[in-house]
Amino acid sequence: MPTKAADGRTDQEKRAAAEAAAEFVESGMTVGLGTGSTVAFLLPALAERRLDIRCVATSPATEANARSLGLDVVPFDESAPAISQLDVAIDGADQVDPDWWLIKGGGGAHTREKVVAAAAARFVVIVSSEKVVERLESPVPVEILAFGAQATLRELQRSVLRPSTPLSPEGGLIADWFGEIRDPAQLASWFDSIAGLVGHGLFPPEMVSDVIVGRGPSAERLPGRR
Ligand code: 5RP
């Protein structure tokens, strides 16, 4: 269990990464807002800049938080005037490996988060330093359709439904997959092949433009992918 001092340092690093990423945003941009405790530091940093931006949110929690800070949050659905592209999306991650594969979805918002990251010209990942790992370790969060859920879980095998995470905004069930991650690309395509699996928390390096890591009070931009 992390100590209080370690928690304080982690928060300091999350804040440093989030504040550095907020500087990437300029007036006139459309901005995807991720979900989680690191993004919770991004929202006030963005709001303080008083930019003329339109935001889309990856979860009801982020939407409520962003609106309460005065950020303009617009729908990201079929309604008009529709937004079909974003200039930048900024989000946290649970793990980042040396090739920039990510595991996301600790907060269960990975399906929307992936849609938003994919729609963005630039996807910026913000993490505290302990999230940078040599090798990805399970669990990998997944979202599955309620219809046929037991059949999908059976297909996935080593997976467990999260007892206390609410359904996704689309009504999906959130589970965690506990197998071994030997090859993230192979695992991602296996997940993609499973009927009933709506989304998974493996994000490929091609999706990621920048990784900003908090180290103590400062933030460092990881050099290009290996
Ligand atoms: C939510 C996510 C989060 O970005 C991820 O879990 C990191 O969260 P935090 O910033 O709270 O450590 O993917 O679905």
Let me know the largest β-sheet.
6 strands, mixed
Separation of the first and last Cα atoms:
32 Å
Strand content: 15-25%
- The whole-angstrom Rg is 17 Å
Question: Judging from the principal axes of the Cα atoms, what is the shape?
Answer: globular
Task: Please give the number of β-strands.
Answer: 13
Order of helices and strands: HEHEHEEEHEEHEEHEEEE
Structure annotation, total helices: 6
Spans of at least 5 consecutive residues whose pLDDT stays below 50 are none
- List the strand order in the largest sheet: 2-1-3-6-12-13
> What would the average pLDDT be, to the nearest integer?
95
Helices and strands: which structural class?
alpha/beta
Could you explain the architecture of this structure?
The protein has helices spanning 4-22, 39-48, 60-68, 110-119, 149-156, 184-192, and strands at residues 30-33, 54-57, 86-91, 95-96, 102-103, 120-128, 140-144, 159-161, 173-177, 197-200, 202-203, 210-215, 218-221. The longest helix is centred in the N-terminal third of the chain and has 19 residues, at 4-22. With 226 residues, the chain is of the alpha/beta class. Strand 1, helix 2 and strand 2 form a beta-alpha-beta unit. A 6-stranded mixed β-sheet has the order 2-1-3-6-12-13. A 4-stranded antiparallel β-sheet has the order 8-9-7-10. Strands 4-5-11 form a 3-stranded antiparallel β-sheet, covered by helices on one side. The mean pLDDT is 95. The chain binds ribulose-5-phosphate. Ribulose-5-phosphate is lined by residues 34-38, 91-94, 104-110, 113.
